[in-house]
Write a structure and sequence with these properties.
The complex is a heterodimer. By secondary structure, chain A is α/β, with parallel strands linked by helices. Chain A is built from 19 helices and 13 strands. Chain B has six domains: 55 residues, no CATH class; 83 residues, Glutaredoxin (3-Layer(aba) Sandwich), CATH 3.40.30.10; 117 residues, Glutaredoxin; 177 residues, NADH-ubiquinone oxidoreductase 51kDa subunit (Rossmann fold); 176 residues, Ubiquitin-like (UB roll) (Roll), CATH 3.10.20.600; 55 residues, 2-Layer Sandwich (Alpha-Beta Plaits), CATH 3.30.70.20. Chain B is globular and about 85 Å long. Classes of the chains: A alpha/beta, B alpha/beta.
Chain lengths: 484, 780
């Protein structure tokens, strides 16, 4: 048996035990990307480095075996810096968007590409569910939003941006017409806490909706006769018909939010409310110009209030690390179009007042380029980059590699520029004796994972495609359709 | 060439069909077709267990292999360190211009020539060097690109294999020794051999012509030594074919030829040397005329290079006459393996490949392993640009290295040895192959060697071009037919090496020292050197030095002694600025520290590394930021790509250095560069990545002011093309020479009037400055 210490805790292990395994026995989880179960060790990503305190050496714990007398440190300042530097380097050579530029540009951070994909597939209900996660007033905002998302849309550099705003509008409108079932509006669990919200504009409505959904009981106070604030009193009715606003507010009311209209809240009343309610939200000192921004801030404030009332650390909505790259180069347009359609941007045939028809919406949504990654929540590179505070631009080179997308395979997609060259997929094809399989081609910085003899991905991965896609630690190799 | 399936089948017949034969198979295919046709590779996969993934993985890893068709002739421009500091980049650019190659193309439109950069041809003393097929041109300057191609075309079709015939039946009057090391051959010794043959034949002289290995004086090649039967031998340097008749007649003409021997050697040399251009390309400046050979050889001690210049490399009997195989005999008759190891351990011999691991300890580790199969590998994968020790030793002393390997095999209990030699060293490969054959014939290889129970066989393996394969685990991966990815140690090769068996991997020079130690005893060896570094070290001395070449010096000699006494100082009146020792893993040591004694520890303390023995001298015209950039571009290209820190870290360091050399650096770049260098050193998996930052860290340490100058947009030495421009001063006599030579017609001229350079057209190729007869071109 071998005796060593890991983070100053003594442990005895069988000869042949790796440091990572030994740490695991002590409940210490060491991050790793290139290591995968029983596949042969490769030791390439260097995220799993730990330090041997006896000599200060940095060693990859996935492959180095425990030795007598080792004094391993798994996570001090220096080890964390090593991992961060490795991640900074990997990210400097990682060309891809975790989240699509449109989503990053959206003040409410709505998952626009996912909405688009549902719409393109005719799944209007699912599209609505995606929108409502981040935007409490889709029909309203679908009419009045200046759409910063469309400014960021990558499709813009090919022809014109996807008509995201109109698509969001139809996702919302569809359910104004179709009447959502009560269970999708009325929260199922209650937290038994009351919150007072002053003002019924987009900020207050948005905050109330999300807090109510989280189980709180919200009451909105407003001095006006009807709710909506600026939406009702500053926006032209032609652009935003009253019926749309009313229907959308009705949904919020239906969710259980109490509206106390014609109620002026002065300083004295505020003090009272503070005493009566578990929390109180004042209106913003300065209302933002964009309603979407106000709505987004309402959502954000709701999150913070929720955290506060739950006794959690107040962080607000946590945004994960985002890999991103600059403009789309002309050579990249065809790569992105592989997953889209060539058609030009549609204008609603019935005019802006009517918006898109279902068919038009499906066609327009299909123009989306699927800029977002297929593994935004499981990509280890993203998760570790987030954990270690990695900086993608730190080691930015003078030029970046061009994005390529390989759709030759029926069930998986290969995006080489997201590859970290860990070789897991190669080892999987070796393990299952794929006839062609995958291999490293070239060496050094220019090494790529490819199919021998320039054959298609379909021929390289005849039986291992799903296993390889699921094992890939990044979005380089992924399932074409999201795993259900 | 038409593809023929039978060719492939025949190749496999001779190489074997196992997966480990993949590299020899690819080498044979490439030899046949000059590239690797896809059909050929598919055929290999069809009839062997080699998979498509393996064959493509391997073919694309090693730089020797080409997957695209190439021109009829290959032009290899050496960009080794010595060539780099002497302007190889400009030569490469000039050749590309001459062939009209557009960006990204390497083959000319007619498909005649393909140009490639190679990391080092090991001919550093005649830098810059260009090789076209089998012909090597030395001292090439950018404006000679056209002549070079022309000369090559003229050489085509000329037969070059005349054999020497002696005038039979007469007493030998003397001996003429012709250096046949690569430097000599490259500088035309083959042509001289022919001239000697012809002269001897036409005069019916009775002279023995002898080919000898490298003398080490590579700065004076081609070398011819005349050894009269009585009288002192006389060495002629920088001999031209046209000189040969005169030399021979001086010594051997029927009337009164001995009389002329009273003439002192170097007077003679001075009368014969001239500065004529030869073949239109070989240019020597008169300032490197040799005065004394003794100071070059005087401070040297020959152990690995024992009997230099006197041994015919392949003459096994001559090797035996000069103590060859005595050490082996001593071992096999009455010295136990344990005693051999003790002797080597006591000698203090440390690995000469760079790491400096004690050889005795390594042998001991292998001998302790209980295994029926063990291997010895001679690491001759000398990839350092600016180093050619292994090449010289293998070419000139093949039997000595072989004897060392046999002793290593005996001591560790190994039954088989491998020579791993770069394919870029065809002469070394050829000599070792022949030496193995001769040894087998003479009973030094095979079963029951010298009547003992010791059996040993040797195979030769040609490396396919990957610097990382100098790392022992990557070298082993390569012999096994895989990509040269290093693996983590432990397990060490001494425990689990080639095909899982305990394996000794020793550097060529290390093995070349073994027989000396066994013959003379450990004390004779360890009395030389310093406390931690015993014996001698072979260096390839090149760069800005009057007398470059292969030298063997006792450890502990100072840098200054090497540069000034042996090397004869810096030529052309320039200042000694620094040495670059240890190649891409080593560092730059400033002239101010030149009194440091040479040894493993002392070099490491200075942030450099002994390395394998490349020693490039730099003068005041060399930019240290450019040097760092140069080495990083090398390691970056040679990184295997396995681990993050090396694959991307070296690239990002290079990005920063390139930015600096282009004058686009930011103040924060230096800190970031230092941090990244530090992490690449600490975080890389193998020696390549861990030492790659050394050139950066040492130049930052000793020449930080130059880095800072670059950030201010100024290159103090005027080396960085983006930071300089060329102008014409009042010295101009209006001779139009520069304008005639300018490849981009950037010089506006009127005869007899001062010319002018159009900055927008100037590509900073330096041609005008070199050609100007009156130093009227300024660069700043």
């Amino acid at each position: 048996m071998i005796n060593l210490t890991i983070d100053h805790q003594p442990i005895e292990v069988e000869p042949g035990t790796t440091l990572m395994e030994a740490a695991g026995m002590l409940g210490i989880i060491i991050p790793s990307m290139c290591h995968n179960g029983d596949l042969p060790h490769f030791a390439s990503c260097m995220i799993c480095v730990v330090k041997d305190e006896r000599n200060g050496k940095m060693i990859p714990s996935c492959s180095i075996r425990a030795e007598e007398g080792m004094q391993i440190i798994t996570g001090d300042e220096e080890v964390r810096e090593a991992r961060k530097t490795a991640l900074d380097l990997l990210l400097s050579d990682h060309v891809g968007d975790c989240e699509a530029p449109c989503q990053r540009a959206c003040p409410a951070h709505m998952d626009i590409p996912l909405m688009n994909r549902h719409l393109a597939a005719g799944e209007f209900r699912q599209a609505y569910d995606v929108v409502i996660r981040d935007i409490a007033l889709p029909s309203v905002l679908g009419r009045i939003c200046p759409a910063p998302c469309e400014g960021a849309c990558r499709r813009k550099s090919i022809d014109e941006p996807v008509a995201i705003c109109l698509l969001k509008r139809i996702a919302g409108d569809h359910h104004l017409q179709e009447n959502l079932p009560a269970e999708s509006i009325i929260p199922t669990h209650k937290l038994n806490k009351n919150i007072a919200i002053i003002g019924s504009g987009p900020y207050g409505l948005s905050a109330a909706w999300y807090l109510q959904q989280a189980g709180f009981q919200c009451t909105i106070f407003d001095q006006n006769e009807q709710p909506g604030g600026a939406l009702r009193y500053s926006v032209s009715r032609e652009i935003l018909p009253e019926v749309v606003l009313n229907q959308e507010i009705d949904r919020i009311r239906k969710s259980g939010v109490i509206f106390e209209m014609n109620t002026f809240i002065g300083e004295e009343e505020v003090d009272n409310l503070r005493k009566q309610y578990d929390a109180m939200m004042s209106p913003l000192d300065k209302a933002p110009k964009m309603a979407i921004r106000a709505a987004a801030l309402g959502k954000e404030a709701a999150k913070r209030t929720h955290q506060e009332l739950s006794g959690e650390i107040i962080t607000g909505e946590r945004r994960l690390f985002n890999s991103h790259f600059g403009r789309l180069e002309p050579e990249e347009a065809p790569e992105y179009l592989k997953e889209s359609v060539q058609d030009a941007r549609l204008a609603p045939s019935g005019g802006m007042t009517l918006g898109f028809s279902r068919e038009e919406a499906m066609a327009e949504a299909a123009r989306c380029l699927h800029c977002d990654c297929r593994k935004p929540n499981t990509c280890k590179l993203r998760l570790y980059a987030d954990e270690y505070g990695a900086e993608q631009r730190r080691f930015a080179g003078p030029s970046r590699k061009l994005v390529r997308k390989n759709f030759q395979h029926e069930i998986v997609v290969y995006e080489p520029e997201k590859c970290i060259k860990c070789g897991i997929c190669i080892r999987i094809t070796e393990k299952y004796r794929e006839e062609l399989g995958l291999t490293f081609i070239g060496r050094g910085f220019d090494v790529v994972v490819g199919i021998p003899f320039d054959q298609s991905l379909e021929q390289g991965l005849t039986k291992t495609a799903l296993e390889a896609a699921d094992a890939c630690p990044t979005g380089a190799l992924s399932r074409k359709k999201e795993k259900k | 060439m038409e593809f023929n399936i039978n060719d492939i089948d025949q190749i496999i017949e001779s190489t074997g069909r196992e997966t480990s034969a993949v590299i020899p198979i690819l080498q044979a295919i490439q030899k046949k077709y000059h590239y690797l046709p896809e059909v050929a590779l598919k055929r290999v996969c069809a009839i062997t267990p080699i998979t498509p993934a393996q064959i493509i993985g391997v073919a694309s890893f090693y730089s020797q292999f080409r997957l695209q068709p190439v021109g009829k002739h290959m032009i290899r421009v050496c960009i080794g360190t010595a060539c780099h500091v002497k302007g190889a980049g400009l030569v490469y650019d000039a050749i590309c211009r001459e062939l009209d190659l557009t960006e990204g193309k390497d083959t000319d439109a007619s498909g005649t020539f393909t140009v490639e950069k190679v990391s080092c041809l090991g001919c550093c003393t005649i830098a810059p060097v260009v090789q076209i097929d089998g012909i090597t041109y030395g001292h090439v300057s950018p404006d000679q690109a056209g002549k070079l191609l022309e000369d090559f075309k003229n050489q085509l079709g000329k037969s070059k294999d005349k054999t020497f015939r002696t005038a039979l039946g007469r007493e030998i009057e003397g001996e003429i020794r012709i250096g046949l090391g690569s430097c000599c051959v490259a500088s035309g010794s083959e042509a001289i051999r022919q001239a000697v043959e012809e002269t001897v034949e036409s005069n019916s002289l009775n002279i023995k012509l002898k080919n000898v290995g490298c003398v080490g004086m590579c700065h004076q090649v081609p070398l011819v030594e005349v050894v009269p039967v009585n009288g002192d031998p006389i060495l002629y340097t920088q001999v031209k074919p046209g000189d040969v008749r005169q030399i021979i007649e001086q010594h051997f003409s029927p009337t009164g030829f001995w009389k002329k021997l009273s003439v002192k050697a170097f007077n003679l040399i001075n009368t014969i040397q001239d500065d004529r251009t030869w073949d239109g390309v070989d240019r020597y400046s008169s300032s490197i005329r040799e005065k004394e050979v003794s100071s070059f050889l005087g401070r040297q001690i020959s152990i690995a290079t024992e009997y230099r210049g006197a041994l015919n490399p392949l003459d096994i009997n001559e090797y035996k006459k000069n103590g060859g195989f005595e050490a082996l005999k001593k071992c096999l008759t009455g010295t136990s393996p344990a005693e051999v190891i003790r002797e080597i351990t006591e000698s203090g011999l440390r690995g000469r490949g760079g790491g400096g691991f004690p050889t005795g300890v390594k042998w001991e580790m292998v001998s302790r392993q209980k295994s029926d199969i063990k291997y010895v590998i001679c690491n001759g994968d000398e990839g350092d640009p600016g180093a050619f020790m292994d090449r010289m030793l293998l070419e000139s002393y093949p039997y000595r290295v072989l004897e060392g390997m046999l002793i290593a095999g005996y001591a560790t209990g190994a039954g088989e040895g491998f020579f791993y030699i770069r394919a870029e060293y065809p002469l070394a490969v050829q000599r070792i192959r022949e030496a193995i054959r001769q040894c087998a014939e003479a009973g030094y290889l095979g079963q029951n060697i010298l009547g003992s129970s010791f059996n040993f066989r040797i195979r030769l393996y040609e490396g396919a071009g990957a610097f990382v394969c100098g790392e022992e685990t990557a070298l082993i991966a390569s012999i096994e037919g895989r990509r040269g990815f290093p693996t983590l140690r432990p397990p060490f090769p001494a425990e689990q090496g080639l095909w899982g068996a305990p394996t000794v991997v020793n550097n060529t020079e290390t093995l070349a020292m073994v027989s000396y130690i066994m013959r003379h005893g450990a004390t004779e060896f360890n009395r030389m050197g310093t406390n931690a570094s015993k014996g001698t070290k072979v260096f390839a001395l090149a760069g800005k030095i009057a007398r470059g070449g292969l030298i063997e010096v006792p450890m502990g000699i100072t840098i200054r002694e090497i540069v000034e006494e042996i090397g004869g100082g810096i030529p052309n009146g320039h200042q000694f600025k620094a040495i670059q020792i240890g190649g891409p893993s080593g560092g730059c040591i400033p002239a101010s520290l030149a009194d440091t004694p040479v040894g493993f520890e002392t070099m490491t303390e200075l942030g450099a590394m002994m390395g394998s023995g490349g020693l490039v001298v730099l003068d005041d015209t060399d930019c240290m930021v450019d040097m760092a950039r140069y080495f990083l571009s090398f390691t970056q290209k040679e990184s295997c790509g396995k681990c993050t820190f090396c694959r991307i870290g070296t690239r990002r360091m290079l990005d920063i250095l390139e930015r600096l050399c282009q004058g686009k650096g930011k103040t924060s770049d230096l800190d970031e560069l230092e941090k990244l260098a530090e992490w690449t050193r600490k975080g890389s998996l193998c020696g390549l990545g861990r030492t790659a930052p050394n050139p950066v860290l040492t130049t930052l340490r000793y020449f930080r002011d130059e880095y800072e100058a670059h950030i201010q947009g100024h290159c103090p030495t005027g080396k960085c093309a983006d930071l300089i421009h060329y102008t014409i001063n009042d010295n101009c006599i209006g001779c139009t020479l520069c304008a005639q030579k300018c490849p981009t017609e950037a010089i506006r001229f009127k005869p007899h009037e001062k010319h002018e350079i159009e900055q927008e057209k100037c590509i900073k190729c330096d041609t005008c400055r070199l050609i100007c007869p009156v130093d009227a071109i300024d660069k700043f």
